[in-house]
Design a protein that fits this description.
By secondary structure, this protein is mainly alpha-helical. The protein folds into two domains: 68 residues, no CATH class; 101 residues, no CATH class. 58% of the residues lie in helices and 5% in strands. Strands 1-2 form a two-stranded antiparallel ribbon. Helix 2 packs across helix 4, helix 3 packs across helix 4 and helix 6 packs antiparallel against helix 9.
């Protein structure tokens, strides 16, 4: 394997996307990139179903890899299908807003969907003292926007962009609502 190929995994531009690379190494580079992303996704706690969606690998391969890395099978279950869990806690909504802003910024890069979510999750967990969202919850935030269940808004009080359900009538972000509730006693 080419050293250039391995280095390109960390530079976020795989050798298969670089001009002038030979076709026979392209397939190998793609396989290495997908395998690396799969391992990272599993290590970050992504369930087998989500890993399959993001990488295109077969479920049996991902489940076997999950068992090898964690010593137990991937937990069963699908992606969440409702936003109720986020809405129960203003801190979760604040962190979901951060995740959305990170995702929006990183999705414009030439990275794969898996690489974008890995970068979003790692950035999110680095920036937040007490992360409340696991990898699955982080991955679901962009889906809520794509499915048009949530939209991005601008807070009338502080001007910060935040996300909220499309049918919500409040015009302040969860942070301002929390601040006003704590400092004004209501």
């Amino acid at each position: 394997m080419h050293v250039h190929c391995l280095a390109s995994l960390f530079l976020h531009r795989p050798c298969c996307q670089q001009p002038g690379r030979r076709n026979r190494s392209v397939e190998l580079c793609i396989q290495v990139m997908i395998t690396t992303e799969t391992i990272q996704l599993v290590q970050l706690g992504a369930r087998a179903n989500l890993v399959c969606q993001l990488t295109g690998l077969e479920k049996t391969i991902v489940k076997r890899l999950y068992r090898q890395l964690h010593g137990h099978p991937s937990p069963p279950g699908q992606m969440p299908y409702t936003d109720t869990w986020y809405l129960e806690n203003p801190s979760r909504m604040l962190q979901a807003a951060l995740v959305w802003r990170l995702y929006r910024r990183l999705k414009e890069s030439e990275r794969s969907a898996a690489r974008v979510l890995i970068a979003v999750f790692e950035s999110y967990t680095y920036m937040v003292i007490e992360p409340l969202l696991n990898f699955t919850r982080v991955a679901f935030v962009p889906h809520l926007i794509t499915m048009k269940l949530w939209s991005e808004r601008r807070c009338e009080s502080c001007g910060t962009a935040y996300v909220s359900p499309v049918d919500e009538s409040l015009e302040t972000c969860p942070g301002c609502r929390r601040y006003y509730r704590l400092h004004r006693g209501g």
